[in-house]
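This part of the workshop introduces the protein records we will be handling. A record pairs a protein's sequence with a compact description of its fold. Comparing a sequence with its tokens is the quickest way to learn the format. The record below serves as our worked example for the rest of this section:
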Amino acid sequence: MSHPGDGGRDGDGTGPGSELVIGSRPPSLERRAYDAVLHWLLEGGASPGNVVPLRELSRQLGISRTPVRFAVGRLHEQGLVDYDARIGFTVSLPSVADLEELFDLRLMCEVHAVRRVFAHGAGSNRALGDALALEAREGSELAVRVATDPSLFPAFSERDSRFHRLVIDYAASPRLGGWYEQVSLRMVIFRLGLHVPLSRERFEMSAREHDAIAGAISSGDEQGATSLLERHIGRVRVQTIERAGLVRSDAGRGKRGSRTPASIIPAGRATSSEVIAWRPDVPPS
């Protein structure tokens, strides 16, 4: 698999290195570096266009830059960071084409998951519908309050993320779950730096749509459930693409500096749901 040329710089005067082997299971030190860089991307205040601070990441981890370059190389292969020979590795900037494709993939995963659940039998769709209804009910209660009490946003956003992940989990397909996790992770990276007004109408609409999807699944209406899911994700697609243009404009005005993290050593691996839960500028889905 190809990599950026070794002759360029990676943000601190070193190249990506030939040791970036994608696809093999990394040793524990490289896994630690990968988790730390991912944690910095998701929870360290990074924005699209920021240079990845390899030297600082290495210093805080107390390791050489070799495993950190390995980690950043993996993230580059996953599309989470870009590489430019002039400035090095940077947090990926979304394009409309990127976002359109990611939403297409997300929709394909979730709709396929719903169909798999129905194929498992009536008991499966009722179990999923009940689980989704609980998440939707909790989300609806929070939606009424979160616009005026931003401290509740983490709880609301966690419910939102869990709702969609339940759809995938009940499909009982590890491969589908893995694909969905990668799509979700890229969506979170692309949403970094987005600033979306927190309106009660916005939150309540998301909660109502979740409740309708849960009801259709519980009642055995496969066509209705997939149709509602398509409309819901389509609405979020429009919102996200509109905001992505603002992020690209900001980056184009010179906001490509390196964000130095106060601490990049995670207690555990960050997941897309954890990130969404703790970033109040990420729109609900």
About this structure: The mean pLDDT is 76. The chain has two domains: 1-92, 96-246+270-277. The chain is about 60% helix and 5% strand. The CA atoms of residues 7 and 277 lie 39 Å apart.
